Fold this protein.
Amino acid sequence: MNMVRVSRVGFRYIEEWVLRDISFSINKGEVLGVIGPNGSGKTTLLKSLNRTITPEQGDVFIDGTNVKEIKRRELARIVGTVPQEASMIFPITVLEMVLMGRAPYLGRLNFEGEKDYAKAIMAMEMTDTLPFSSRNIDALSGGEKQRVLIARAIAQEPVIMLLDEPTSFLDIKHQIEIYDLIKGLNSRNDLTVVIVSHDINLAAQYCNRLLLLNNGRVSKIGSPEDVVTKENIEEVYGCRVLVDRNPVTEKPRITPLSRNL
Amino acid sequence: MVATLRKVLLICLAFAFIFVVIAILSLSLGTADIGLMKILFGIFEALSGSPCGWNDTEKVIILHIRLPRIILAGIVGASLSVAGVVFQALFRNPLADPYILGISSGSAVGAILAILLGAGLSFLSIPAASFSGALVTIILVLSIARSRYGSHPNTLLLSGVIVGAFFSAVIMFLVSITQDERVHTILFWLMGDLSLSRYSEIIVITPFVIIGFFIIYLYAHPLNLIATGEDTALQLGVEVGKVKRLLLITASLITGVVVSVSGVIGFVGLIVPHMMRMIFGSDHRILLPASGLFGLSFLVIADTIARTIIAPIELPVGVVTAIFGAPFFIYLLRKKGLGS
Protein backbone atom coordinates (compact mmCIF):
# COMPACT_ATOMS: atom_id res chain seq x y z
CA MET A 1 0.00 0.00 0.00
CA ASN A 2 1.24 3.49 -0.86
CA MET A 3 1.96 5.69 2.11
CA VAL A 4 3.43 8.52 0.08
CA ARG A 5 2.95 9.23 -3.59
CA VAL A 6 5.05 11.87 -5.32
CA SER A 7 3.59 12.88 -8.66
CA ARG A 8 5.54 14.85 -11.27
CA VAL A 9 7.12 17.21 -8.74
CA GLY A 10 9.22 20.10 -10.00
CA PHE A 11 10.82 22.81 -7.90
CA ARG A 12 13.30 25.67 -8.29
CA TYR A 13 14.69 28.10 -5.72
CA ILE A 14 15.59 30.84 -8.15
CA GLU A 15 15.96 29.86 -11.78
CA GLU A 16 17.71 26.53 -11.94
CA TRP A 17 15.35 23.57 -11.48
CA VAL A 18 16.42 21.58 -8.42
CA LEU A 19 13.76 18.90 -8.83
CA ARG A 20 12.47 17.92 -12.25
CA ASP A 21 9.43 15.79 -12.97
CA ILE A 22 9.91 13.48 -10.00
CA SER A 23 7.45 10.62 -9.48
CA PHE A 24 7.67 7.66 -7.15
CA SER A 25 5.81 5.99 -4.29
CA ILE A 26 6.79 4.90 -0.81
CA ASN A 27 5.18 1.81 0.70
CA LYS A 28 3.81 1.72 4.19
CA GLY A 29 6.41 0.44 6.65
CA GLU A 30 9.37 0.52 4.27
CA VAL A 31 12.73 2.20 4.66
CA LEU A 32 13.55 4.17 1.55
CA GLY A 33 17.05 5.52 1.10
CA VAL A 34 17.62 8.59 -1.06
CA ILE A 35 21.13 8.73 -2.49
CA GLY A 36 22.81 10.91 -5.08
CA PRO A 37 25.72 13.31 -5.52
CA ASN A 38 25.93 16.76 -3.90
CA GLY A 39 23.37 19.12 -5.35
CA SER A 40 21.25 16.34 -6.83
CA GLY A 41 18.19 17.56 -4.90
CA LYS A 42 18.04 15.08 -2.00
CA THR A 43 17.34 17.60 0.77
CA THR A 44 14.95 19.57 -1.42
CA LEU A 45 13.03 16.39 -2.16
CA LEU A 46 12.74 15.72 1.58
CA LYS A 47 11.52 19.27 2.15
CA SER A 48 8.79 18.83 -0.40
CA LEU A 49 7.53 15.74 1.45
CA ASN A 50 6.98 17.63 4.71
CA ARG A 51 5.87 20.82 2.94
CA THR A 52 8.77 22.93 4.17
CA ILE A 53 8.70 23.97 0.53
CA THR A 54 5.75 23.81 -1.84
CA PRO A 55 6.67 22.40 -5.25
CA GLU A 56 6.01 24.66 -8.19
CA GLN A 57 4.82 21.69 -10.21
CA GLY A 58 3.20 18.40 -9.29
CA ASP A 59 1.83 17.12 -6.01
CA VAL A 60 2.72 15.05 -2.98
CA PHE A 61 0.06 12.76 -1.53
CA ILE A 62 0.19 11.24 1.92
CA ASP A 63 -2.23 8.39 2.51
CA GLY A 64 -4.11 9.60 -0.54
CA THR A 65 -4.46 13.24 0.57
CA ASN A 66 -2.63 16.08 -1.11
CA VAL A 67 -0.26 17.62 1.48
CA LYS A 68 -1.36 21.07 0.37
CA GLU A 69 -4.77 20.28 1.85
CA ILE A 70 -3.44 19.08 5.20
CA LYS A 71 -3.12 21.69 7.94
CA ARG A 72 0.46 22.07 9.15
CA ARG A 73 -0.40 21.07 12.68
CA GLU A 74 -2.14 17.96 11.34
CA LEU A 75 0.78 17.20 9.01
CA ALA A 76 3.21 17.48 11.93
CA ARG A 77 1.39 14.58 13.62
CA ILE A 78 1.89 12.43 10.52
CA VAL A 79 5.37 13.40 9.35
CA GLY A 80 8.33 13.79 11.72
CA THR A 81 11.56 15.30 10.45
CA VAL A 82 15.11 14.90 11.72
CA PRO A 83 17.20 17.77 10.36
CA GLN A 84 20.86 17.45 9.49
CA GLU A 85 21.82 19.60 12.42
CA ALA A 86 20.36 22.14 14.83
CA SER A 87 22.30 25.28 15.61
CA MET A 88 20.83 26.99 18.63
CA ILE A 89 20.93 30.76 19.00
CA PHE A 90 19.43 30.66 22.49
CA PRO A 91 20.44 27.99 25.01
CA ILE A 92 17.91 25.17 25.51
CA THR A 93 18.10 21.85 27.30
CA VAL A 94 17.71 18.37 25.87
CA LEU A 95 14.36 17.90 27.60
CA GLU A 96 13.06 21.19 26.20
CA MET A 97 14.19 20.16 22.72
CA VAL A 98 12.52 16.75 22.90
CA LEU A 99 9.31 18.26 24.33
CA MET A 100 9.11 20.45 21.22
CA GLY A 101 8.11 17.28 19.40
CA ARG A 102 4.84 17.48 21.30
CA ALA A 103 4.02 20.87 19.76
CA PRO A 104 1.41 19.52 17.32
CA TYR A 105 -0.51 17.99 20.24
CA LEU A 106 -0.54 20.89 22.72
CA GLY A 107 -3.85 22.33 23.84
CA ARG A 108 -5.03 25.92 23.88
CA LEU A 109 -2.75 27.16 26.64
CA ASN A 110 0.26 25.54 24.98
CA PHE A 111 1.64 23.92 28.12
CA GLU A 112 2.75 20.30 28.09
CA GLY A 113 0.74 17.87 30.19
CA GLU A 114 1.71 14.64 31.94
CA LYS A 115 1.17 12.61 28.79
CA ASP A 116 3.54 14.85 26.85
CA TYR A 117 6.26 14.40 29.45
CA ALA A 118 5.72 10.63 29.42
CA LYS A 119 6.11 10.51 25.63
CA ALA A 120 9.21 12.69 25.75
CA ILE A 121 10.82 10.52 28.43
CA MET A 122 10.01 7.37 26.48
CA ALA A 123 11.59 8.89 23.37
CA MET A 124 14.70 9.79 25.38
CA GLU A 125 14.90 6.25 26.76
CA MET A 126 14.73 4.78 23.27
CA THR A 127 17.52 7.03 22.03
CA ASP A 128 19.58 6.74 25.21
CA THR A 129 19.48 10.49 25.76
CA LEU A 130 17.69 10.46 29.11
CA PRO A 131 20.92 10.55 31.18
CA PHE A 132 21.72 14.03 29.92
CA SER A 133 18.17 15.38 29.63
CA SER A 134 18.95 18.53 31.60
CA ARG A 135 22.12 19.40 29.72
CA ASN A 136 22.40 22.19 27.23
CA ILE A 137 22.08 21.13 23.57
CA ASP A 138 25.21 23.02 22.58
CA ALA A 139 27.26 21.12 25.16
CA LEU A 140 26.59 17.78 23.43
CA SER A 141 28.73 15.89 20.94
CA GLY A 142 27.56 15.47 17.35
CA GLY A 143 26.25 11.96 17.97
CA GLU A 144 24.39 12.93 21.13
CA LYS A 145 22.84 15.92 19.39
CA GLN A 146 21.71 13.74 16.52
CA ARG A 147 20.06 11.29 18.94
CA VAL A 148 18.26 14.18 20.63
CA LEU A 149 16.88 15.31 17.27
CA ILE A 150 15.69 11.75 16.63
CA ALA A 151 14.12 11.67 20.11
CA ARG A 152 12.21 14.83 19.25
CA ALA A 153 10.89 13.21 16.09
CA ILE A 154 9.91 10.08 18.06
CA ALA A 155 8.04 12.20 20.63
CA GLN A 156 6.13 13.60 17.67
CA GLU A 157 4.64 10.09 17.15
CA PRO A 158 4.72 10.31 13.39
CA VAL A 159 3.64 7.69 10.87
CA ILE A 160 6.43 8.73 8.52
CA MET A 161 9.90 9.79 9.61
CA LEU A 162 12.18 11.78 7.34
CA LEU A 163 15.89 11.94 8.13
CA ASP A 164 18.34 14.24 6.39
CA GLU A 165 21.81 12.72 6.48
CA PRO A 166 21.54 11.75 10.13
CA THR A 167 25.03 10.29 10.28
CA SER A 168 27.10 12.76 8.27
CA PHE A 169 29.04 14.11 11.27
CA LEU A 170 29.36 10.85 13.16
CA ASP A 171 32.04 8.23 13.59
CA ILE A 172 31.32 4.65 12.50
CA LYS A 173 30.14 3.44 15.91
CA HIS A 174 27.57 6.19 16.14
CA GLN A 175 26.61 5.74 12.50
CA ILE A 176 25.71 2.12 13.12
CA GLU A 177 23.89 2.99 16.35
CA ILE A 178 21.73 5.55 14.57
CA TYR A 179 20.88 3.17 11.73
CA ASP A 180 20.07 0.34 14.18
CA LEU A 181 17.83 2.69 16.11
CA ILE A 182 15.98 3.75 12.99
CA LYS A 183 15.63 0.18 11.78
CA GLY A 184 14.28 -0.80 15.21
CA LEU A 185 11.66 1.95 15.12
CA ASN A 186 10.74 0.86 11.64
CA SER A 187 10.17 -2.78 12.53
CA ARG A 188 8.58 -2.27 15.95
CA ASN A 189 6.25 0.58 15.13
CA ASP A 190 5.68 -0.06 11.43
CA LEU A 191 7.14 3.39 10.86
CA THR A 192 7.67 4.45 7.26
CA VAL A 193 11.17 5.91 6.92
CA VAL A 194 12.79 8.08 4.28
CA ILE A 195 16.47 8.59 4.85
CA VAL A 196 18.75 10.84 2.83
CA SER A 197 22.28 9.51 2.92
CA HIS A 198 25.71 10.19 1.56
CA ASP A 199 26.84 6.77 2.65
CA ILE A 200 25.81 4.37 -0.10
CA ASN A 201 27.05 1.30 1.79
CA LEU A 202 25.04 2.01 4.92
CA ALA A 203 21.98 2.91 2.88
CA ALA A 204 22.31 -0.35 0.91
CA GLN A 205 22.57 -2.33 4.14
CA TYR A 206 19.58 -0.86 5.91
CA CYS A 207 17.10 0.28 3.27
CA ASN A 208 14.44 -1.84 1.58
CA ARG A 209 14.70 0.28 -1.52
CA LEU A 210 16.97 3.03 -2.79
CA LEU A 211 16.15 6.10 -4.85
CA LEU A 212 19.10 7.38 -6.84
CA LEU A 213 18.80 11.07 -7.71
CA ASN A 214 20.81 12.72 -10.43
CA ASN A 215 20.59 16.41 -11.23
CA GLY A 216 17.05 16.68 -9.84
CA ARG A 217 15.69 13.61 -11.64
CA VAL A 218 15.02 10.05 -10.53
CA SER A 219 17.83 8.07 -12.07
CA LYS A 220 16.92 4.68 -10.59
CA ILE A 221 14.59 3.37 -7.92
CA GLY A 222 14.50 -0.20 -6.66
CA SER A 223 16.17 -2.74 -4.41
CA PRO A 224 19.77 -2.01 -3.35
CA GLU A 225 20.89 -4.81 -5.68
CA ASP A 226 19.21 -3.15 -8.66
CA VAL A 227 20.31 0.40 -7.88
CA VAL A 228 23.84 -0.02 -6.58
CA THR A 229 25.51 -1.34 -9.70
CA LYS A 230 28.82 -0.30 -11.17
CA GLU A 231 27.10 1.23 -14.22
CA ASN A 232 24.53 3.26 -12.25
CA ILE A 233 26.95 4.63 -9.69
CA GLU A 234 29.69 5.47 -12.19
CA GLU A 235 27.22 7.22 -14.46
CA VAL A 236 25.61 9.33 -11.73
CA TYR A 237 28.60 10.09 -9.51
CA GLY A 238 31.11 10.36 -12.36
CA CYS A 239 33.87 8.36 -10.72
CA ARG A 240 35.19 4.84 -10.94
CA VAL A 241 33.88 2.40 -8.33
CA LEU A 242 34.25 -1.23 -7.45
CA VAL A 243 30.96 -2.93 -6.55
CA ASP A 244 31.04 -6.23 -4.72
CA ARG A 245 28.96 -7.93 -2.01
CA ASN A 246 29.27 -7.35 1.68
CA PRO A 247 30.18 -10.86 2.88
CA VAL A 248 28.02 -10.58 6.01
CA THR A 249 24.85 -8.93 4.74
CA GLU A 250 25.10 -10.00 1.09
CA LYS A 251 24.18 -6.41 0.18
CA PRO A 252 26.00 -4.56 -2.58
CA ARG A 253 29.07 -2.66 -1.42
CA ILE A 254 30.97 0.04 -3.24
CA THR A 255 34.59 1.16 -3.06
CA PRO A 256 35.53 4.36 -4.89
CA LEU A 257 38.63 3.88 -7.04
CA SER A 258 41.37 6.34 -7.82
CA ARG A 259 41.61 7.41 -11.44
CA ASN A 260 45.27 6.38 -11.38
CA LEU A 261 44.63 2.73 -10.65
CA MET B 1 13.78 25.54 32.52
CA VAL B 2 10.64 23.84 31.23
CA ALA B 3 7.61 26.03 31.56
CA THR B 4 4.57 25.02 33.54
CA LEU B 5 1.59 27.25 34.19
CA ARG B 6 2.39 27.20 37.91
CA LYS B 7 5.97 28.37 37.39
CA VAL B 8 4.80 31.17 35.12
CA LEU B 9 2.28 32.39 37.68
CA LEU B 10 4.82 32.25 40.52
CA ILE B 11 7.39 34.21 38.52
CA CYS B 12 4.76 36.80 37.60
CA LEU B 13 3.76 37.21 41.25
CA ALA B 14 7.37 37.62 42.33
CA PHE B 15 8.12 40.26 39.70
CA ALA B 16 4.87 42.11 40.42
CA PHE B 17 5.91 42.27 44.08
CA ILE B 18 9.38 43.57 43.15
CA PHE B 19 7.74 46.23 41.01
CA VAL B 20 5.51 47.41 43.85
CA VAL B 21 8.52 47.71 46.18
CA ILE B 22 10.54 49.61 43.58
CA ALA B 23 7.61 51.87 42.73
CA ILE B 24 7.14 52.82 46.38
CA LEU B 25 10.87 53.51 46.79
CA SER B 26 10.83 55.59 43.64
CA LEU B 27 7.81 57.56 44.89
CA SER B 28 9.81 58.65 47.93
CA LEU B 29 12.87 59.70 45.95
CA GLY B 30 13.23 63.09 44.31
CA THR B 31 14.07 66.74 44.71
CA ALA B 32 11.24 67.30 47.16
CA ASP B 33 12.04 65.27 50.24
CA ILE B 34 9.15 62.98 51.09
CA GLY B 35 10.13 60.21 53.48
CA LEU B 36 9.48 56.56 52.74
CA MET B 37 7.43 56.22 55.91
CA LYS B 38 5.22 59.09 54.89
CA ILE B 39 4.58 57.43 51.52
CA LEU B 40 3.76 54.11 53.18
CA PHE B 41 1.41 55.66 55.73
CA GLY B 42 -0.26 57.66 53.00
CA ILE B 43 -0.87 54.54 50.90
CA PHE B 44 -2.08 52.61 53.93
CA GLU B 45 -4.47 55.38 54.88
CA ALA B 46 -5.74 55.73 51.34
CA LEU B 47 -6.39 51.99 51.15
CA SER B 48 -8.20 51.94 54.47
CA GLY B 49 -10.37 54.86 53.36
CA SER B 50 -9.30 57.31 56.04
CA PRO B 51 -7.98 60.79 55.15
CA CYS B 52 -4.44 60.82 53.84
CA GLY B 53 -1.65 62.38 55.88
CA TRP B 54 -0.09 64.19 52.92
CA ASN B 55 -0.33 67.96 52.56
CA ASP B 56 -1.51 69.47 49.27
CA THR B 57 1.97 69.98 47.82
CA GLU B 58 2.95 66.43 48.62
CA LYS B 59 -0.28 65.18 47.12
CA VAL B 60 0.43 66.96 43.84
CA ILE B 61 4.01 65.73 43.75
CA ILE B 62 3.13 62.15 44.58
CA LEU B 63 -0.11 61.69 42.69
CA HIS B 64 0.31 63.99 39.72
CA ILE B 65 4.04 64.10 39.07
CA ARG B 66 5.79 61.01 40.39
CA LEU B 67 3.03 58.40 40.19
CA PRO B 68 2.07 58.94 36.52
CA ARG B 69 5.75 59.05 35.66
CA ILE B 70 6.39 55.73 37.40
CA ILE B 71 3.38 54.09 35.78
CA LEU B 72 4.37 55.35 32.35
CA ALA B 73 8.00 54.30 32.82
CA GLY B 74 6.73 50.85 33.77
CA ILE B 75 4.52 50.52 30.71
CA VAL B 76 7.28 51.74 28.40
CA GLY B 77 9.87 49.44 29.98
CA ALA B 78 7.58 46.41 29.78
CA SER B 79 6.66 47.13 26.16
CA LEU B 80 10.21 47.67 24.93
CA SER B 81 11.34 44.49 26.73
CA VAL B 82 8.56 42.35 25.27
CA ALA B 83 9.14 43.83 21.80
CA GLY B 84 12.84 43.01 22.23
CA VAL B 85 12.08 39.37 23.06
CA VAL B 86 9.81 39.08 20.02
CA PHE B 87 12.32 40.61 17.61
CA GLN B 88 15.14 38.46 18.99
CA ALA B 89 13.14 35.26 18.52
CA LEU B 90 11.71 36.13 15.09
CA PHE B 91 15.08 37.18 13.71
CA ARG B 92 16.98 34.53 15.68
CA ASN B 93 19.32 37.27 16.79
CA PRO B 94 20.04 38.01 20.46
CA LEU B 95 21.13 41.56 19.61
CA ALA B 96 17.89 42.65 17.96
CA ASP B 97 15.92 45.27 19.85
CA PRO B 98 13.52 48.04 18.84
CA TYR B 99 16.25 50.66 19.12
CA ILE B 100 19.06 48.81 17.32
CA LEU B 101 16.67 47.85 14.53
CA GLY B 102 15.84 51.53 13.99
CA ILE B 103 12.18 50.98 14.83
CA SER B 104 12.16 53.43 17.74
CA SER B 105 13.62 56.20 15.57
CA GLY B 106 11.15 55.39 12.80
CA SER B 107 8.28 55.67 15.29
CA ALA B 108 9.63 58.99 16.51
CA VAL B 109 9.73 60.37 12.97
CA GLY B 110 6.11 59.29 12.52
CA ALA B 111 5.08 61.02 15.75
CA ILE B 112 7.00 64.21 14.94
CA LEU B 113 5.54 64.45 11.47
CA ALA B 114 2.08 64.08 12.99
CA ILE B 115 2.78 66.96 15.39
CA LEU B 116 4.25 69.22 12.73
CA LEU B 117 1.43 68.51 10.33
CA GLY B 118 -0.93 69.56 13.10
CA ALA B 119 -2.55 66.29 13.94
CA GLY B 120 -3.63 67.55 17.34
CA LEU B 121 -7.25 66.90 16.43
CA SER B 122 -7.49 63.36 17.77
CA PHE B 123 -5.69 61.94 20.77
CA LEU B 124 -5.02 58.79 18.75
CA SER B 125 -3.33 60.45 15.80
CA ILE B 126 0.14 60.66 17.31
CA PRO B 127 0.29 57.02 18.49
CA ALA B 128 -1.17 55.99 15.12
CA ALA B 129 1.48 57.96 13.23
CA SER B 130 4.15 56.51 15.51
CA PHE B 131 2.91 52.96 14.83
CA SER B 132 2.94 53.65 11.09
CA GLY B 133 6.52 54.88 11.43
CA ALA B 134 7.43 51.63 13.19
CA LEU B 135 5.80 49.49 10.49
CA VAL B 136 7.46 51.39 7.65
CA THR B 137 10.82 50.98 9.38
CA ILE B 138 10.53 47.25 9.93
CA ILE B 139 9.53 46.69 6.30
CA LEU B 140 12.41 48.91 5.16
CA VAL B 141 15.00 47.20 7.38
CA LEU B 142 13.84 43.72 6.37
CA SER B 143 13.91 44.48 2.67
CA ILE B 144 17.39 46.00 2.90
CA ALA B 145 18.67 43.01 4.87
CA ARG B 146 17.10 40.37 2.64
CA SER B 147 19.17 39.16 -0.23
CA ARG B 148 18.14 36.43 -2.62
CA TYR B 149 20.14 33.98 -0.55
CA GLY B 150 18.42 34.78 2.71
CA SER B 151 19.66 37.27 5.26
CA HIS B 152 22.72 37.13 7.49
CA PRO B 153 22.14 38.06 11.15
CA ASN B 154 24.59 40.94 11.03
CA THR B 155 23.15 42.37 7.84
CA LEU B 156 19.90 42.80 9.69
CA LEU B 157 21.56 44.68 12.58
CA LEU B 158 23.56 46.82 10.18
CA SER B 159 20.55 47.82 8.14
CA GLY B 160 18.71 48.58 11.38
CA VAL B 161 21.52 50.82 12.60
CA ILE B 162 21.75 52.59 9.23
CA VAL B 163 18.01 53.14 8.93
CA GLY B 164 18.04 54.39 12.54
CA ALA B 165 20.85 56.83 11.72
CA PHE B 166 18.91 58.03 8.70
CA PHE B 167 15.79 58.65 10.76
CA SER B 168 17.80 60.48 13.42
CA ALA B 169 19.06 62.74 10.66
CA VAL B 170 15.48 63.28 9.54
CA ILE B 171 14.58 64.27 13.10
CA MET B 172 17.54 66.69 13.20
CA PHE B 173 16.37 68.15 9.92
CA LEU B 174 12.88 68.65 11.29
CA VAL B 175 14.35 70.30 14.39
CA SER B 176 16.38 72.69 12.23
CA ILE B 177 13.44 73.87 10.18
CA THR B 178 11.05 74.25 13.09
CA GLN B 179 11.11 77.75 14.53
CA ASP B 180 8.49 77.67 17.27
CA GLU B 181 8.26 76.05 20.70
CA ARG B 182 7.54 72.66 19.14
CA VAL B 183 11.33 72.26 18.90
CA HIS B 184 11.31 71.18 22.54
CA THR B 185 8.73 68.49 21.90
CA ILE B 186 10.86 67.16 19.05
CA LEU B 187 14.07 67.16 21.03
CA PHE B 188 12.23 65.24 23.69
CA TRP B 189 11.60 62.44 21.22
CA LEU B 190 15.18 62.32 20.22
CA MET B 191 16.45 61.83 23.76
CA GLY B 192 13.75 59.73 25.31
CA ASP B 193 12.22 61.42 28.28
CA LEU B 194 9.44 60.66 30.74
CA SER B 195 9.33 63.97 32.60
CA LEU B 196 6.10 65.07 30.95
CA SER B 197 4.13 61.96 31.84
CA ARG B 198 0.40 62.43 32.19
CA TYR B 199 -2.47 60.12 33.07
CA SER B 200 -4.12 60.92 29.74
CA GLU B 201 -1.18 59.33 27.92
CA ILE B 202 -1.35 56.28 30.13
CA ILE B 203 -5.04 55.87 29.37
CA VAL B 204 -4.46 56.15 25.62
CA ILE B 205 -1.62 53.64 25.31
CA THR B 206 -2.54 51.03 27.94
CA PRO B 207 -5.29 49.27 25.94
CA PHE B 208 -2.99 48.84 22.92
CA VAL B 209 -0.15 47.56 25.04
CA ILE B 210 -2.35 45.06 26.88
CA ILE B 211 -3.95 43.75 23.69
CA GLY B 212 -0.47 43.53 22.17
CA PHE B 213 0.91 41.51 25.11
CA PHE B 214 -2.09 39.22 24.96
CA ILE B 215 -1.65 38.48 21.24
CA ILE B 216 2.09 37.92 21.67
CA TYR B 217 1.60 35.57 24.61
CA LEU B 218 -0.79 33.42 22.58
CA TYR B 219 2.20 32.70 20.36
CA ALA B 220 4.75 32.15 23.12
CA HIS B 221 5.22 28.48 22.27
CA PRO B 222 5.38 28.94 18.48
CA LEU B 223 8.06 31.57 19.24
CA ASN B 224 10.11 28.82 20.93
CA LEU B 225 9.91 26.78 17.75
CA ILE B 226 10.68 29.69 15.43
CA ALA B 227 13.70 30.60 17.58
CA THR B 228 14.93 27.04 17.01
CA GLY B 229 14.70 27.52 13.25
CA GLU B 230 12.02 28.36 10.72
CA ASP B 231 12.17 25.00 8.97
CA THR B 232 11.88 23.20 12.30
CA ALA B 233 8.89 25.37 13.24
CA LEU B 234 7.18 24.54 9.93
CA GLN B 235 7.88 20.85 10.45
CA LEU B 236 6.40 21.00 13.95
CA GLY B 237 3.17 22.52 12.67
CA VAL B 238 3.64 26.31 12.96
CA GLU B 239 2.31 28.50 10.15
CA VAL B 240 5.55 30.44 10.27
CA GLY B 241 4.73 33.11 7.68
CA LYS B 242 1.41 33.98 9.27
CA VAL B 243 2.75 34.01 12.85
CA LYS B 244 5.77 36.08 11.86
CA ARG B 245 3.68 38.74 10.12
CA LEU B 246 1.22 38.97 13.02
CA LEU B 247 3.96 39.23 15.65
CA LEU B 248 6.01 41.77 13.68
CA ILE B 249 2.95 43.99 13.41
CA THR B 250 2.08 43.53 17.08
CA ALA B 251 5.62 44.22 18.32
CA SER B 252 5.73 47.30 16.07
CA LEU B 253 2.40 48.39 17.51
CA ILE B 254 3.54 48.30 21.12
CA THR B 255 6.88 49.91 20.22
CA GLY B 256 5.10 52.62 18.24
CA VAL B 257 2.59 53.57 20.90
CA VAL B 258 5.15 53.73 23.70
CA VAL B 259 7.59 55.76 21.61
CA SER B 260 4.74 58.21 20.95
CA VAL B 261 4.68 59.03 24.68
CA SER B 262 8.29 58.46 25.72
CA GLY B 263 10.51 59.13 22.74
CA VAL B 264 13.47 56.99 21.82
CA ILE B 265 14.71 54.97 24.80
CA GLY B 266 17.40 52.54 23.71
CA PHE B 267 18.76 49.19 24.86
CA VAL B 268 15.94 48.29 27.28
CA GLY B 269 14.74 45.60 24.88
CA LEU B 270 18.26 44.22 24.80
CA ILE B 271 19.29 44.25 28.45
CA VAL B 272 16.08 43.02 30.09
CA PRO B 273 15.48 39.94 27.88
CA HIS B 274 19.13 38.99 28.16
CA MET B 275 19.05 39.09 31.97
CA MET B 276 15.83 37.09 32.05
CA ARG B 277 17.22 34.50 29.64
CA MET B 278 20.24 34.07 31.90
CA ILE B 279 17.99 33.38 34.89
CA PHE B 280 15.07 31.47 33.38
CA GLY B 281 16.32 30.06 30.07
CA SER B 282 14.86 30.53 26.62
CA ASP B 283 11.28 29.28 26.97
CA HIS B 284 9.11 32.17 25.79
CA ARG B 285 6.18 31.09 27.93
CA ILE B 286 8.32 32.24 30.88
CA LEU B 287 10.63 34.67 29.10
CA LEU B 288 7.84 36.93 27.80
CA PRO B 289 6.03 37.59 31.09
CA ALA B 290 9.30 37.70 33.05
CA SER B 291 10.81 40.26 30.64
CA GLY B 292 7.62 42.31 30.59
CA LEU B 293 7.32 42.42 34.37
CA PHE B 294 11.01 42.98 34.99
CA GLY B 295 10.93 45.64 32.27
CA LEU B 296 8.45 47.53 34.46
CA SER B 297 10.92 47.74 37.32
CA PHE B 298 13.95 48.22 35.10
CA LEU B 299 12.81 51.43 33.46
CA VAL B 300 11.42 52.80 36.74
CA ILE B 301 14.89 52.31 38.26
CA ALA B 302 16.57 53.90 35.22
CA ASP B 303 14.16 56.84 35.30
CA THR B 304 14.59 57.31 39.05
CA ILE B 305 18.34 57.47 38.49
CA ALA B 306 17.76 59.92 35.64
CA ARG B 307 15.78 62.32 37.80
CA THR B 308 17.84 62.08 41.00
CA ILE B 309 21.50 61.46 40.16
CA ILE B 310 22.41 65.10 39.54
CA ALA B 311 19.29 66.69 41.06
CA PRO B 312 17.88 69.23 40.65
CA ILE B 313 18.88 68.69 37.00
CA GLU B 314 16.94 65.87 35.39
CA LEU B 315 18.51 63.69 32.72
CA PRO B 316 16.43 62.20 29.93
CA VAL B 317 16.04 58.51 30.78
CA GLY B 318 17.29 57.59 27.29
CA VAL B 319 20.69 58.94 28.29
CA VAL B 320 20.83 56.62 31.31
CA THR B 321 19.79 53.49 29.40
CA ALA B 322 22.27 54.27 26.63
CA ILE B 323 25.16 54.84 29.02
CA PHE B 324 24.58 51.38 30.49
CA GLY B 325 23.23 49.76 27.36
CA ALA B 326 25.87 50.60 24.77
CA PRO B 327 28.75 48.95 26.68
CA PHE B 328 26.46 45.99 27.35
CA PHE B 329 25.76 45.68 23.63
CA ILE B 330 29.49 45.68 22.90
CA TYR B 331 29.99 43.02 25.57
CA LEU B 332 27.32 40.80 24.00
CA LEU B 333 28.73 41.40 20.54
CA ARG B 334 32.19 40.34 21.63
CA LYS B 335 30.93 37.36 23.59
CA LYS B 336 28.71 35.98 20.85
CA GLY B 337 31.10 37.02 18.10
CA LEU B 338 30.09 38.61 14.85
CA GLY B 339 29.67 35.29 13.07
CA SER B 340 26.24 33.80 12.59
Chain B has 14 helices and no strands.
